[in-house]
Amino acid sequence: MTEKTDGGILITRIKQLQGRIFEKLLAQHGISEFNGAQGRILFVLWEEDGIPISELARKTGLAKTTLTSMLDRMEQRELIERIYPPADRRTVKIRLTERARGLQEHYEQVSDEMNQIFYKGFRDEEICSLETGLRKVLANLTEKEDYTNGT
């Protein structure tokens, strides 16, 4: 491995900038019902609605404690609802409301615009290579977290 690498700091800076730009794009598109972080939750639920909180935490990368407080706010804004299956009331599932389903098209427009910004000047093979590398980093970090958590 090379002596000095900047991957961690670059990822952090990209995440910070991406978050600020995404928030501005949401505002420019008149989306005030949710913020960028909540949009990540909605995105997962648009892909697969009615999943348990533990699965939602895994797919969003959010800690369960963080996710719970975000879900409380989203429930107050009538974007999601908690479902308690009669067979197992300990397993809470999260389901989108009609209001949230109606926001998906607007979110996708903002997301498409963000992707245009993100990959400006990239060739398709560069995008694939970058995403392959990032998936490896994510897998390494996930493996380490699972190991340190004893799972």
Molecular structure report:
This protein is mostly helical and 151 residues long. The protein folds into 2 domains: 12-118, Arc Repressor Mutant, subunit A (Orthogonal Bundle), CATH 1.10.10.10; 121-151. Helix content is 66%, strand content 7%. Helix 1 (7-28) crosses helix 6.
Helical residue percent band: 55-70%
Query: Under the CATH scheme, which architecture of the largest domain would be assigned?
Result: Orthogonal Bundle
Order of neighbouring strands in the sheet with most strands: 1-3-2
Give the amount of beta strand, in percent: 5-15%
Instruction: State the order of secondary-structure elements, H for helix, E for strand.
Output: HHEHHEEHHH
Gross morphology: globular
How many separate helices? 7
The named CATH superfamily of the largest domain: Winged helix-like DNA-binding domain superfamily/Winged helix DNA-binding domain
Average predicted local confidence, pLDDT: 92
Which ranges are low-confidence, i.e. pLDDT below 50, for 5 or more consecutive residues? none
Class of the largest domain, according to the CATH hierarchy? Mainly Alpha
Q: Which structural category do the helix and sheet elements fall into? A: mainly alpha
Termini Cα gap: 28 Å
Number of strands: 3
Could you please say which CATH topology of the largest domain applies here?
Arc Repressor Mutant, subunit A
Number of discrete domains: 2
Radius of gyration: 18 Å
Brief rundown of the structure:
The chain has 151 residues and is mainly alpha-helical.
